């Protein structure tokens, strides 16, 4: 069997490229008409009903991915620091006591991109590998 | 929660068309650009959904809650009306809540509740108009929950609570729930914390159970103030309310008696640890018992399961007012210890299992209905010194 020689540096570069492409990293995205950046605390405040505005003062419309999505788990780990059971109970209380409504759930990463790109004041989150020009990356939270 | 405004007639034709297109696309899985087309269709579907949520459909929101449970005690002392007979009715209820947006900042809220303990008669529990001002204040008028306790707003929404039932020691001495009136709330958001104050006033006329009878309870000229501070981890709360109470019964328990309520609350929730505690005092002139109560709950979440322990205490402070009368049975002294857990079984459904042991009644009936009726029937020897209550409960919110 013929084994093609591959130089070690080339292999390393290829591996690096590969890993940077396949590593799913959470990014917080927003509409192009919104602010350029946001802090972890500000995102947390929005997703836990403590704030209804984006850092630039716009009324916020928050979106989330469905339960079971790995990016949602990542988001809960890095941003809200609450699990789904806690969040569900929390939002039931908010809704039934008239304090607010949970982030709107979209069905997939593509839907996330399309609603965030077309809604003023929107905020959402996505796998960094799926981001394109239609939305603005506001924050890449450190794990 | 979204299902309500997804299923609308206006949307149906377009939705059906998209669904048809989707099915058609899906039936040729070999085509190279299929996934792209599906993505496009998905995007269109979502933008339609978005239009829906933002247009007329957000004018009505419908939510509900449901509970059912099984209770049984080791004797007939009557803690939360539990007896040796299994009981399903006491904990069963169904609630429906709708919010109608009248304008951007004004809405009408309606809550209907049917309770198993009241033969499933449907009652308007809340019905109020609310207006929110841009400066953080809010005005409400109509029938609303009396905001005496930390968990007043979720009193009947078991899904929103960690326990199988709110601690009886604190939540039982006030036998009424909702009043007719108005309130004003002002919220100040500071960085990382917020302070909320609420002033309320109104009138209440309702039935309550007392010593095995249904008695009328009227609270006139209710006025009160609550203050709440939270940094979203710790919450501190204070409440004071005043009213004139007329309470029926034979003999009547009060006629326009000066009534005061005072309460302090504390809670902590970091997503794992949970701490809740309230300290309350009820003072009613006349025969109705003045009580001091407190409880503390500690819980810890392990994924979907939250075990908790609660210790509570209640004691009447005006036993001398009923000395030598049959109403002595209203004297109360009681401690209760609960061990239980909440299990979030699936999205929107939680199960709770609880064991509560009550004791320390001293010379009183412990304020428990079984003991009270026994004493009234001239059978004081039949009094139980303690009781164990077992509860399994299911709560849902939708």
TrEMBL record, chain A:
Domain of life: Bacteria
Keywords: Signal
Residues annotated as signal peptide: 1-24
Annotated protein name in UniProt: Phosphate ABC transporter substrate-binding protein
